[in-house]
Amino acid sequence: MIRTLAVAGLLLVASPGHGLGVRDMIGRDVALAGPPARIVSLVPSVTEIVFALGAEDRLVGVTDFCDYPPAARRKPRVGGMLAPSLEVITSLRPDLVVATTEGSREETVAQLQRLGIPVYLVAAHRLADVWDVIARLGALTGREAAAGHLVAGLRARVRAVEQAVAAGSRPRVLYVLWPEPLIVPGRESLVTELIGIAGGRSISASEGTDYPRFALEAAVARAPEVILLANHSASTGGIDRERWRGLTSVPAIRDGRLHAVNGDLLHRYGPRIVDGLEQLARAIHPEAFR
């Protein structure tokens, strides 16, 4: 008898003696021997979600960048996202590796498949995708109820932000993902959507790629009313604000609206993305949270 179950777009097909079939986020069919019990995560966002679901006992390996929650640092390390150690991964005997379309090389995915290790790909460009990733990982780990509860709580917090900023203006926002070269969120970036939900208008929202390079002169010409500088981690050092403070013709600088934000919250699509959204909203509309 064949059993089929669809959960948030995740297709699972099970039959005795034939294992389990799942479909990942880009539509690839992935064959598993059964529900995965030994997972290697090549994505920090995935690692955070698996811990949030209470399924961390299934994680047998993570990348060097999987640093949250702190307990994730105690999991066996397989190297970086771009070039993890295939030897280490193989030694961990995973029945599933979770990778990403934006950070994992196609070559790595192909090599793992040649070694007989199933690879499940995830990606998130919108908040709806974040909820989808959580639901899919919940289904893969047998934590569907926990995933549903987690998503419901996150959605409620998003609605609270929307309501808090609804009556305010929508100031022009320059979000600096990286200062040199200047990299900003484009039309397909999750950060662009978050800025909109937080009550702002990203001045780079019309740019065609996810995270394009941007000329400083172009940013100045669009007269941002708020400038947000993303800090990525303690290892990257502090944010250099002096370069920006010198742009005295820019409304954001004149009005003292140059702020730092936590890039680890905003550039990973785990549950803490809503913490990042709340941080954005407070920076863009401080009056709404007094």
Question: What this model shows, in words?
Answer:
The protein is built from eleven helices and twelve strands. With 290 residues, it is an alpha/beta fold. It has two domains: 91 residues, Rossmann fold (3-Layer(aba) Sandwich), CATH 3.40.50.1980; 123 residues, Nitrogenase molybdenum iron protein domain (Rossmann fold, 3-Layer(aba) Sandwich), CATH 3.40.50. The strands form three sheets. Strands 1-2-3-4 form a four-stranded antiparallel beta sheet.
Shape: elongated
Mean pLDDT: 91
CATH superfamily of the largest domain: Nitrogenase molybdenum iron protein domain
Strand order of the main beta sheet, please? 1-2-3-4
Summed up, the domain count is: 2
Structure class: alpha/beta
What low-confidence regions span 5 or more consecutive residues with pLDDT below 50? Answer: 1-9
Q: What can be said about the biggest beta sheet?
A: 4 strands, antiparallel
CATH architecture annotation name of the largest domain: 3-Layer(aba) Sandwich
- Which radius of gyration do the C-alpha atoms yield? 21 Å
Termini separation (Å)?
59 Å
- Seen as an oligomer or otherwise, the chain set is single chain
- The CATH topology of the largest domain corresponds to Rossmann fold
Strand content: 15-25%
